[in-house]
Amino acid sequence: MESETERYADPERVQQVLAHPLAEDDARRVAELFKALADPTRVRLLHALSHSELTVGDLARVVEMDDSISAISHHLRLLRNLRIVRDRREGKQIYYALDDDHIASILGQSLEHAGHT
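Above: the chain's sequence. Below: its structure in token form.
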């Protein structure tokens, strides 16, 4: 029977990591966030919203999908449900924005990592 020191290359490091467990629910929410960011159209929408609050029509123009307002709305609904974007009504218009600075930071760091200048 192998001892714990034989089974693990560095039991102290294993214990150090085990001292900071990640709850399954937290892991699922982070995975959902990255799944939402895995779509190029949604990344382009978020990039646009990182510069300004915009309406669905404005976003469709910015991401060159003028003929797909319903597709943009679908993406925004998903992003809103995940608390990545928020909306506010002004008269008949609904404006979308990034939900908070964390989203802008994640997007900025991701773009930087990908080599965006």
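Strands lie at 85-90, 93-98.
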